[in-house]
């Protein structure tokens, strides 16, 4: 029996699921064009309005791009964490959750990712991780480079964990909790401390030490939360809002 909270799926959403199933069945990859509208109308036996609503839904989810003009139409795309970040942001906003919610989630998630990365991260990912640490060190005077490398470092560990869900979740969480956008400043002394923490985490992962990797990440995220709580408590207490950037 369906839950009272479950809504019946619209015809357009059901059609969207069929279109995605057919993308997988055909083995379509990014850049492939889907059949033209007249073919899809006949194949799926639906009205033009329903088909266009389905395609628009898939476009919003990042599954396809709708190319205009002659020879255009739906083209397969690679969804990214942006859609997940938007959905999470709206859920948290309507739940009146503060930004502290994201920080607390990172405390729980990222040490596990570091532990897995110590076992599963490839040599190629390790080289990228080292590159991020070195780039941050070489540009400690530039906060924009610091923020970019800070995000890249955590993204690399998330994806290097070998768990696809962690990669997407961290992409989404970092997209929501962009310190510069919500008003957290990182003076150079703080950037230097973050670099040292990243170096310790890298060395632990590179040595394939699961426990040390998790402990180094725990210390790093705990330090970040303490810094934010001490210097910017009003930011962490502020409610999450969509498109706060």
UniProtKB/TrEMBL annotation:
SUPFAM superfamilies: GntR ligand-binding domain-like, Winged helix' DNA-binding domain. It comes from the Bacteria. Signal peptide: none annotated. InterPro entries: GntR_C, TF_FadR/GntR_C, Tscrpt_reg_HTH_GntR, WH-like_DNA-bd_sf, WH_DNA-bd_sf. Gene3D superfamilies: GntR ligand-binding domain-like (1.20.120.530), Winged helix-like DNA-binding domain superfamily/Winged helix DNA-binding domain (1.10.10.10). One of its GO terms (molecular function) is DNA binding. Keywords: DNA-binding, Transcription, Transcription regulation. Residues 9-79 form the HTH gntR-type domain. The keyword Transcription regulation applies. This is DNA-binding FadR family transcriptional regulator.
